[in-house]
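[job 4471] stage=fold_predict status=RUNNING
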Amino acid sequence: MKYLIPLTTDHVPMLISFLKDYPRESCDYSVCNLLTWGKIYNNQFCHYQGRLVVYNAKHSYVFFPMGEYLPAAELAQLLRGFKEIDPKVTLIQIPEEYVSSTPEIHAYFELSENRDWDDYVYSCQKMVELRGKKLAKKKNLISQFRRLYPDYKVLRITPYYRENLCRFTQKWRLEREVGGDYLKTEFEAIRNTLDMWDSLPVDGIIICIDRQMVAYSIFSPQTKCMATIHFEKYDPTKKGSGQLINWETARYLNQEYKWLNREQDIGLPGLRQAKNSYMPDRMIKFIKGELK
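[job 4471] inference complete, writing structure tokens
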């Protein structure tokens, strides 16, 4: 693995090309996450037998290669090469369909799952319509917000709003008492996203009342029919703002996408409850493999 190269925005076209031909639904493969969190995690890459392989140096992770599936024996050989430079390395984001179609992987890897890092996937249309008793409360909160603030605006994010978004996020973070280390790192990832905005396939919206920001979301394409919501923040003093930004984001994306990936809950009980409350249509399993 002597040819590892730091992953930068110069490589965005390469990532887009690979993921267009070999789409992956896990949010860890979104171009936005690979670059913005990747800057924190020291993401690097190499080419291996025509596949693209990303290496997270901070956590000793090798991403399942982008490209046509490799035989299990070749995957094991790839990991052995990485172990020469990082003995703790682990293969992550092994697709569930690969495990099902390649039973011989069990001869080379000890596989395990981590529920904390499973992705939540929702029907975009369902998130717009919010039908049924279980989602009625969310629909009511949106209606209350719209009655209280009938003149609220939905603005598209541009680099012009960078400082306002950072200040809003910093205030939101400092008011939270749980997940401190994660929230600090997330804030860094948000700043990276805004700094790289013009170089990434990323988009977002802001909710404003009387020119004051009360919520925002940042998202990007995942596959041809799926978008991933990376960041979503709101002012809790504005009742219904959390439900509204979720709904407005789904409305915005429903024009082009069938599915919304709302990423993981990272084991935080409050986040898990919030994501489950919208009744995900399915989960994308986080599967990792340790060489035997």
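[job 4471] summary: The CA atoms of residues 122 and 280 lie 5 Å apart.
[job 4471] exit 0
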